[in-house]
Amino acid sequence: MRHKRLDHRFVQHIPERLEPGVLYVSMEYATSAHSCCCGCGEEVVAPFTPTDWKMTFDGETVSLRPSIGNWMLKCRSHYVIDRGKVIEDGPWSDEQVEAGRRRDRAAKARFYGQTPKVEPSVQPGLPKAKLGSWRRLWDWTFGGS
Predict the structure, then answer these.
(1) Using the 8-state DSSP alphabet, how is residue 123 labeled?
(2) Region label for 39, one of left (φ > 0), alpha (ψ between -120 and 50) or beta (otherwise)
(3) Going by DSSP bridges, is the β-strand pair 78-82/62-69 parallel, antiparallel, or unpaired?
């Protein structure tokens, strides 16, 4: 079941089992997690850092920026969470996803005072073993395989 809204819950620790339709926000660990809004049930983690997502709480609702692009998931869903509303965004091509990843890696390298690496393009469509959510987040954040 697709979710058009996410209720937020401020928690210390992200629970093992995520309730669909709920955005869990841990300020202590500067991260959020929710069950994918497409309804596939996969866990989506968005850490709050200067180079990742920003969370805004207006006293009633939560927004996350930039968009959530679940490129590592089978569903490849893409959406924005704006004041609790889930706004579906169009799909990205493999080339757009790879360009976005390169921009993210370069932004992280600049922020952390490193020289951005020039990396070869990734072959689109190669199957990967299913990784846990935290491992996918680690690999996406730090450029692992």
Answers:
(1) P
(2) left
(3) antiparallel
Is 82 within 8 Å of 68 (Cβ atoms)?
no
CA atoms within 13 A on the CB side of 108: 14
> Whole-angstrom Cα distance, residue 145 to residue 90?
26
**Would you state the structure tokens that stand for residue 119, as one six-digit string?**
């990396």
Residue 79 C-beta-side C-alpha neighbours within 13 Å: 23
Compute the distance between CA of residue 13 and CA of residue 44 in angstroms, rounded to an integer: 15
Q: CA 46, 144, 109 angle in degrees (round to 5)? A: 75
| pLDDT, tens digit, 9 for 90 and up, residues 17-73 | 999 999 999 999 999 999 999 999 999 999 999 999 999 999 999 999 999 999 999
State both tokens at 81: 């969470």
If you write DSSP's letter for every residue of 11-34 in order, what string do you get? -SS--SSPPTTEEEEETTTTEEEE
Rounded Cα distance, 21 and 6, in Å: 5
For 4, the token pair is 């058009």
Rounded to whole angstroms, the Cα distance separating 48 from 41 reads 22
Q: Is the pTM of this model over 0.70?
A: yes
Distance, CA of 28 to CA of 42 (rounded, Å): 23
